Amino acid sequence: MAGGSFAWVVLFVAGLFEVGWAIGLKYSDGFTKLVPSVLTGVSMVISVVLLGVALKSLPVGTGYAVWTGIGTVGTAVLGMALLGEPVTLARVVCISLVVIGVIGLKFAH
């Protein structure tokens, strides 16, 4: 089902849902708010299911690293944009290094 470049698209979408559930954890307030908690849980399930689909045809090390990289970068950027987390040169450089690593893993596949 997830052959070739389609697997990469599925993996990217899985990463976006990972960002969704990571940010959702903050909005769920420790799972005390119903709607954010439900949306966070749904995002978790979708993210992991799509990761599993993508890993049918991608190497697990590469796929998992790219998935977590997308989640890491997306969560860090949204944390700065939505949650008022500090935007510092060091953070931007480190986020850029993660992006370079994810791109490198994609092309080293």
Automatic annotation (TrEMBL):
GO terms for cellular component: plasma membrane. The keyword Membrane applies. It is found in: Cell membrane. It is a multi-pass membrane protein. Its main location: membrane. The keyword Membrane applies. InterPro entries: EmrE-like, Small_drug/metabolite_transptr, Small_multidrug_res. GO terms for molecular function: transmembrane transporter activity. The chain crosses the membrane at residues 38-55, 64-83, 89-108. Keywords: Cell membrane, Membrane, Transmembrane, Transmembrane helix, Transport. GO terms for biological process: xenobiotic detoxification by transmembrane export across the plasma membrane. Belongs to the drug/metabolite transporter (DMT) superfamily. Small multidrug resistance (SMR) (TC 2.A.7.1) family. Gdx/SugE subfamily. This is Guanidinium exporter.
